[in-house]
Each structure stands twice: as structure tokens, then as C-alpha cells.
Amino acid sequence: MSGTLGNVQTFQATVPLSVQFESSTDSIHMTAVSMSGQPVALNLQGLPLPPVIQTSFKADKGLPDGLELMSLIEVNESIACPDHSQLEYYILHPEPQIVYIPNFVTPEEISHLIEVTKGSFTPASVYRNGATDVDSGHRKSENAWPPRDEVLQCIEQRARRLQQLDSGLEVEPISVQRYHVDGFFTYHYDQFAAPPNRRNRRSTFNVFLEGDCTGGGTHFPRIPRPTDPNWCQYIDCESTEPGTIFKPIAGGAVFWLNTRDNGTGYDETLHAGMPVKSGRKIGMNIWFWKDFRKYFDSAKDVNTQ
């Protein structure tokens, strides 16, 4: 897998889904934040955008084709969970917001999730133009869906409270991914190629449950690597790939926003699961959705007054 993005064939994946959005941007202006919080302005010219697959929508549809029956979950705020209000986190990038959380899940939660999904993994599939199939040329991993027990509900609650200023969020059923040697997930977006006035994936938590491996990092080729050496405990500072690669450290999580407040997607969130060279990686994805039709309805009401 290389940093040359112009020839990457993009695709869509079934739940857990990864789908493309349309953009005409051919240059990117972004601002990085160092570990010490100092902003560093950058201007990256000439990074080619990958081709995209269009997702069709009817005028009255809120969800993409094939996902009309997907159940989004309202987070259980009434359940009593351990206090994680003092979680340590570091802001890598302000817009789109990308944050690293070193101890997002506990060792006990990790052991539980690995135990309850043991024996239930199936090959991950990809989705193209309404059809699903297993394609190891684009994605080589396995998926499992843990039961929504108290442990999982507390993780949902923790993730939701870290986004307390964002209203109207619902969570997709949480999935666990397992990667053996040579397992990977090529460059993709988590948001849909949706018109902005639809439901879409607002945010992602990419959680590492087991990282007893070499390789297997999460690569953001369009996000510049910070120069502060303190970041090297969490990102791969020796890689020759462009951009930033987060190390798969058990317990850690990468959080990012997929869409702006108006529902349009960020080009910079293009990312990949890099190949596992040795050992095994287990991760977990938490996706929060938002109904951006409410944003457009509010704007329409203001304009008609």
C-alpha cells in the first residue's frame, strides 16, 4: 500500500460501512496542532483525490440505498457507568477535528469484548453498486458484532458524552474487526456519498483492542504528521508514507469528525487500515449518525421569515 492516491480504486463496504463522497477539491489547506497545542499552518497542493462511487438517493429518502432498515440506537444515558469524565486526550488536527484518546477503553472491557466475540467472526465484505461480496483485494479482515450488554452500552455512553456539544446523535450497532497477517483495509471514507440534507455518519471512534503486531496502523495520508516528538509514542514517526499513521495501541482510540455541521464531508478524512506484517490486530468501530435534514429545515425556516 503506497501514498499514491490517484490510482486507488474506491469502494463501499457493508456494515461496518465505508463509503465515498463526491468532491471537486484539488488542493487542501489544513492546520495541524502540535502536542503542546501550538498551531502549525500548512498548505498541501496537488494531492489527487481518488475516484468516487455515486450513491443514489430518492428525494424523500433519509438513508442511502440498501440501508433503509438499518437500526440506529439512542444511547442509554440512564445506565450507571464508571466515571470516565477525566479521560486524557490530545488534539492532532482542529478541522476536521481528529483527537487521540490513549485510554478510551479499559483492559477489562477489552477482555470482555474479545471473549464475547470469540467464534463469531466472519469475512468482511464490500459493497459496490447494490451488491456485496468478499474482496480481499480491497479489504482483508473479519467482523463480529458483540451483544449490546452493559459493557457495550457504557462504551456507547462514554463516546456520546465526549461529543456532548453535538446534538441529535444516534449510534450504529458497534462492530469489532480482526486482522491477521496481511490483513488490511484500503483507503476509504466512513461517510456516505449523500446529499448534505440527509442522515450521515457524523463521527468515528476507531478503537484499538489488541495491537500485538507490527504494521496495522490507521493511516490518514491527507493529515500532516506533527513535528512534536511527544507524538511519536502514538504515531509512527519513522514511516516513509505521507501523512499520519496512528499506532494500534491497545486501549487507545482515534476520534474524528466525518462531516461538517451542514452535512458535507471532509476530504481529509480519507484513511486506511495498514497491512498487518506480523501478529494480530483487533479493533472496534463506533459510528455516530446525525440527521442533517433538521439543519436544512431550520435554515429554510429562517430564510422564509
TrEMBL record:
Residue span(s) of domain Fe2OG dioxygenase: 170-290
State a GO cellular component annotated for this protein. Answer: endoplasmic reticulum
A single Pfam family, by name? 2OG-FeII_Oxy_3
Q: Can the keyword Chloroplast be found in this entry's annotation?
A: no
Recorded GO MF terms: iron ion binding; L-ascorbic acid binding; procollagen-proline 4-dioxygenase activity
Keywords for this protein = Dioxygenase, Iron, Metal-binding, Oxidoreductase
Q: Which cofactor does it need?
A: L-ascorbate
The superkingdom listed in its UniProt entry is Eukaryota
Q: What is this protein called?
A: Fe2OG dioxygenase domain-containing protein
Species of the source:
Coccidioides immitis RMSCC 2394
